[in-house]
């Protein structure tokens, strides 16, 4: 058995270390404002990174084929956790109920749902590869699964995670051999459905978020404020940046700079060159994921690796698109770099699964 994909391991560990540094840099003033401790987010991020490393090592050693045996159970658990959001265990922050837990210990079921869906779809399509060619036995059940997850997650509300999960399922179906006409039809229906949901929103909240990115300066103190501060940060960085730790926008101008908009602080402090190097690291990581999927020893491994790689690629593209005002704000984190324990553990564990698949690849 091989030792695993060395390049993937180095890139992931490098991104995690870089993420810890940038979380500290971007959150310094926000941490003082929130808790009085400038190291508040740094200490938490280090703990989550350590737990993520443990999850990555475990998943790298755990035989990925075992996930196929418990795939339905993983899916059922994921749906149950999403349902618990609408009980007293659900925790509401910033008008969204996305966490369950007691006290300081919280879990984001939406993050768990991503890997649960990947494992289940990989098992479902690999168990009978001909299913994907049948509309009633392959396409329709998976569309129904997408609908269930979309409905449970959009009620939080969390449109970005709902779209990501649907994108993962459709992407895996395409890898498995989905007819291109079905693919076009599914994407078209989905686009119409989301557009209808936005236009019929009673408060007009979703429509405002959708249109604010087109010209954020129309409402500089409202819906466009965060995007404007993000663009100012990126523009201030220039080619080489103002220097690590010297960002101006993180001094309570850009809200929650350590989370979804950390890429803007990276652009300000490390410049265009720093952003390009970070994107290059993600491209190498995606390439290694594709390589592992192509060379996996069985179809379950191929679909599992494909799903994880699609999840990674989707979140990178969506996050950077939002920060650069290329699409409406979605609330998607930047993998391995943004602050957030649940997301960090999910991605590091997922990379462990990729490593395990790569270890079993025949030379």
Automatic annotation (TrEMBL):
<keyword id="KW-1003">Cell membrane</keyword>
<feature type="transmembrane region" description="Helical">
    <location>
        <begin position="261"/>
        <end position="287"/>
    </location>
</feature>
<protein>
    <submittedName>
        <fullName>Putative lipid II flippase FtsW</fullName>
    </submittedName>
</protein>
<feature type="transmembrane region" description="Helical">
    <location>
        <begin position="147"/>
        <end position="174"/>
    </location>
</feature>
<feature type="transmembrane region" description="Helical">
    <location>
        <begin position="336"/>
        <end position="357"/>
    </location>
</feature>
<dbReference type="GO" id="GO:0005886">
    <property type="term" value="C:plasma membrane"/>
</dbReference>
<keyword id="KW-0812">Transmembrane</keyword>
<keyword id="KW-1133">Transmembrane helix</keyword>
<dbReference type="Pfam" id="PF01098">
    <property type="entry name" value="FTSW_RODA_SPOVE"/>
</dbReference>
<dbReference type="InterPro" id="IPR013437">
    <property type="entry name" value="FtsW"/>
</dbReference>
<dbReference type="GO" id="GO:0015648">
    <property type="term" value="F:lipid-linked peptidoglycan transporter activity"/>
</dbReference>
<dbReference type="GO" id="GO:0008360">
    <property type="term" value="P:regulation of cell shape"/>
</dbReference>
<dbReference type="GO" id="GO:0032153">
    <property type="term" value="C:cell division site"/>
</dbReference>
<keyword id="KW-0133">Cell shape</keyword>
<dbReference type="GO" id="GO:0051301">
    <property type="term" value="P:cell division"/>
</dbReference>
<dbReference type="GO" id="GO:0009252">
    <property type="term" value="P:peptidoglycan biosynthetic process"/>
</dbReference>
<feature type="transmembrane region" description="Helical">
    <location>
        <begin position="71"/>
        <end position="91"/>
    </location>
</feature>
<feature type="transmembrane region" description="Helical">
    <location>
        <begin position="106"/>
        <end position="126"/>
    </location>
</feature>
<keyword id="KW-0472">Membrane</keyword>
<feature type="transmembrane region" description="Helical">
    <location>
        <begin position="180"/>
        <end position="199"/>
    </location>
</feature>
<feature type="transmembrane region" description="Helical">
    <location>
        <begin position="46"/>
        <end position="64"/>
    </location>
</feature>
<dbReference type="InterPro" id="IPR001182">
    <property type="entry name" value="FtsW/RodA"/>
</dbReference>
<feature type="transmembrane region" description="Helical">
    <location>
        <begin position="299"/>
        <end position="324"/>
    </location>
</feature>
<feature type="transmembrane region" description="Helical">
    <location>
        <begin position="7"/>
        <end position="26"/>
    </location>
</feature>
